[in-house]
Amino acid sequence: MLVVENLDLCYGDAQALAGVSLEVRQGAVVAIVGANGAGKTSLIRAIAGILKPKRGRILFRGQNIAGLESHRVCNLGIGQVAEGRQVFPTLTVHENLLMGAMIPRAKKRRAENLDRMLALFPRLRERTGQAAGTLSGGEQQMLAIARCLMGEPELVMFDEPSLGLSPAMAQAVLDTIVDLNRQGLSCLLVEQNVAASLELASDAYVLENGAITLSGTGAALLADDRVRQAYLGM
Fold first, then answer.
1. How far apart are CA 168 and CA 182, in angstroms?
2. Whole-number pLDDT of residue 230
3. Are residues 69 and 114 in the same domain?
4. β-strand pairing of 203-208 with 186-190
């Protein structure tokens, strides 16, 4: 579904990504593991069209989308749940959800998808008229995921979805990702809980200093001594 080939990305003279290549098969959950500053968010933003790579290709269903405007990338079927949730705090839950359906691919089924999101996240149904900024962190993350799904994406990139959440709410968010994947959604996951992300990932990559240094199945990386020592403290 998604193929990244030899991607370079720079911030001025500083190189954030160097020759990054990876694949996301349809229906897969692919985890990106790495320390803070390794380039994980830069990679997601480049795929989403927020950042323009210096060189390399990003193929989505065979089409090179590298450097394409973010709204066009979104309309092709790639969604992003950004780090920090990024809800519109002064808008209501209902208004936030409708914002997710502004792209052309989602407008026709906006009402249908709204009902589906409120069924998927019952807590949001209870708060449809409430300002998003007054929600708890976990509720805001639910809203961020639901807003993304309103755009009918085929692939969703999750950037630190459990960050800042209680253990119970973090697990609930990860369980939601598993459920969405079982329903056919392809996922690219950057998650601070390395063990949890590798457990649910079919494939995984280790990103260090902007370059892929290790790849394999999630289970294989979870058992790898280098990964266990660097990211799991074992």
1. 21
2. 87
3. no
4. unpaired
- State the burial class of residue 220 (Cβ atoms within 10 Å of its Cβ: 0-12, 13-18, 19+): middle
Widest distance between CA atoms in the chain: 50
| Of 45, 46, 49, 43, nearest in space to 72 by CA | 49
The CATH number of whichever domain residue 203 belongs to comes to 3.40.50.300
Q: Give the pLDDT band of residue 174 (cuts 50, 70, 90).
A: very high
C-beta neighbour count of 146 within 10 angstroms: 23
Which residues are bridge partners to 203 per DSSP?
Answer: 30, 217
Q: Residue 63: count other Cβ atoms within 10 Å of its Cβ.
A: 9
Please state, in angstroms and rounded to a whole number, the distance separating the CA atoms of residues 156 and 208. 23
Are 1 and 69 in a shared domain?
A: yes
Six-digit token string for 19? 């020759």
Per the CB < 8 A criterion, the answer to whether 150 and 106 are in contact is yes
Residues in the chain: 234
Range of the domain at 172: 1-77+154-234
Residue-wise burial string across 3-13, b where 16 or more C-beta atoms lie within 10 A, e elsewhere: bbbebbbbeee
Query: For residue 36, which of 191, 181, 150, 168 has the smallest C-alpha distance?
Result: 191
Per-residue pLDDT tens for 92-125? 999 999 999 999 999 899 999 999 999 999 999 9
State whether 124 and 214 are in the same domain.
Answer: no
Cβ neighbour number for residue 61 with a 10 Å cutoff: 14
What residues have CB less than 8 Å from 87, skipping those under 6 apart?
Answer: 96, 132, 133, 135, 140, 143, 144, 147
